[in-house]
Amino acid sequence: MSHFYASIQGNRGEATRMGSEESGVEGHIRGWNIGVRVVCTHENGKDVIRVYKTGGSNKPYGTLVLTFYDDSGE
Fold first, then answer.
1. Residue 71: what pLDDT?
2. What residues contact 29, with CB distance under 8 A and at least 6 apart?
3. What is the pTM (predicted TM-score) of this model?
4. Which residues is 7 bridged to in the sheet?
């Protein structure tokens, strides 16, 4: 079983991907000029999810806007 699991839905149906603690998983949902990249990683025994605002297909990397830390064990 995978540590991370991602799914996306579009006009061709749903697609899914799995990621391990080592690989993580990420996705970029975007229009031409605006988008959001979500990156899931495993750091120091905890899951971390970072959300970036991007410039869409024109500028796929962007600015970090939010970070979530798994605090379920605390």
1. 86
2. 8, 35, 36, 37, 38
3. 0.89
4. 16
